[in-house]
Amino acid sequence: MPLFTNNFEAFGLDIGDHSLKLAHVKKIGSTPTLMSYGSLVVPAGISEQGEIKQSDALAKLIKQLAQNPVGKKISTPYVHACLPETHSFIKLITLENAEPKELAARIREELPNHVPIPPDDLYLDWRVAQTLDNNLTQVLVGAVPRAIVDNITNCLISAGLMPVSLQIEAEAILKSLLPLQDQPQTSIAIVDFGATRSSFICFDRGIIQFTITLATSSDAITQVIADQLKLSFEEAEKAKRLCGLDKTAAEGIVEDLVNKSIGELAADIKKSVSYYAEHFPRGSPITSIIMCGGGANLKQLKEMLAAKLAPLAIYTGNPLINLVKNLKKIRPKTGSSSDLNFLSPDLIFEPTKNTCPLTSAEALSYTTAIGLALSNSA
Q1: Which residues, other chains included, contact 371 with Cβ-Cβ below 8 Å and sequence gap of 6+?
Q2: Is residue 4 domain-resident?
Q3: pLDDT band at residue 185, thresholds of 50, 70 and 90?
Q4: Fewer CB atoms near the end CB (10 Å): N or C, the chain?
Q5: Total number of domains in the chain
Q6: H helices within 230-309, ranges in order?
Q7: What is the pTM (predicted TM-score) of this model?
Q8: 57: which residues sit within 8 A by CB, 6+ positions away?
């Protein structure tokens, strides 16, 4: 959720504990086009759990990345950056008999029941999600500690950039993976399987219903392999990428270790799906899970989750879905349904308009950055 916004041409910057990722999308005619992208490793200790520890060092890395992307040189100083998921709160709050002019005061009054930080110590943004019967108004509220936001803002300015918006990560992810127009009105869950953390995002009726952090992360799986097989982290990461969930690779030794962690991930997803069914009576049942993040590239992950989470349908996200001239020109393959279902594997996509190469597998790691970069195309 943008806390500060404007409509300048800007690029997207995903600031993580272990990496920086950048994407620049510009409209060529009416087509959002990926002009450039790039990533840099963030050394340990510069940022921890979403909190910047060494602002000067991080600012230097951000400046270095912005000046040396893959593809076209970035000429704009304006940037859309994401706020750390670990310090962000996004809540769907229901208010009774709330007049529009009273919303700000009513939200601040209600927020302490949902967020364990005083409203005066938070930056807030909100939008009315829907008006229900019985004079009930649902409001989607985003909240982030002021200290976190100010730290990021100052760091970006130190890097010579001008922040146009700071966005909660879940909204950037949705912008990347869902069609910008004609968004689905049915319930969809997105699992961002990241390096240091993973999250579950529930989207229904055009808005985020709730988000939750999941225990399993890609790096945590690598660490399990390293510990159990007495390997360095780098060797374990290579083993994970080569073998994944393939039982035939390395005599199934790596698969056995990875499978245990994926079992924990699947259990957490089940709990989150059940939580939505139990606590959101107006919601529709979640039937589809979209995987994104670098961890979604794990070999045979989709097949394994499909087996563990049946009858839920598991899809791999497509962060390039909006980089087409007209999404409705996407057409089903011969013999499949004539209805457009952007999740269906039986679709022929118009070629993505890129000025630089970015494979589908690489794009999964850039989901948040691409969503941020699409902010001016929404």
Answers
A1: 12, 171, 172, 173, 174, 175, 176, 177, 319
A2: no
A3: confident
A4: C
A5: 1
A6: 233-243, 253-279, 301-309
A7: 0.91
A8: 43, 46
